Amino acid sequence: MRITTTTLGTLRKQDVFDVIGWHLLRQGTRATAFDGVKCLYRAMDGKRCAIGWIIPDEVYERSLEFLGVRDLAARLIESEHAAFARVLYRHMPLLRDLQEMHDARHPFEWPFALRVIAQRHQLNVKVVAQCERSFDRTGIAPHTPMQLVSPVALLSHRKVKPASIAEDFRNEELNETPEFFSD
Questions:
Q1: What is the pTM of this model?
Q2: Spatial separation of the C-alpha atoms in residues 70 and 89, rounded to whole Å
Q3: What is the top-level taxon of the source organism (predicted)?
Q4: How large is the angle between the packed helices 92-104 and 69-76, nearest 10 degrees?
Q5: Is the distance from CB of 110 to CB of 127 less than 8 angstroms?
Q6: Angle 36-23-126 (CA atoms, 0-180°, nearest 5)?
Q7: What mean pLDDT is reported for the chain?
């Protein structure tokens, strides 16, 4: 599904979260300027930030870069793109959280951060779990304490058939890319 001003008007908060979460986790990296520091809605290499994934092509222009989502909405509300600005205002708290996550967190932290954002906004996290399975990424933050195992315990541990875990994931019903998230 191609994001347009018309389709955006039909999206619920859960849909917005799912679209942005899916694309960010699939992308797996920030959208930045050549300096690697300044985040962009649409980078030259095709990457996008959280809000960049919902800016329709007919709305996007380079002059919108470096505006926060609130400033973006304020700039567009008096233009021919007022309908898109209203979408931004309607989902502003969620969009600000998602933009902050993209700009301030490392991509390996995104699955965990998305779960926190979903809880804050009372949304489900199915898309996060689906992306972790599909793209082989986990939401383990670097500060998660690791359990130490003695070498003796490793030697005496029985081998586990790794395919059994993979089969469980393959049998899940959400294992395919939903049409909604296709480019």
A1: 0.72
A2: 8
A3: Bacteria
A4: 130
A5: no
A6: 130
A7: 79
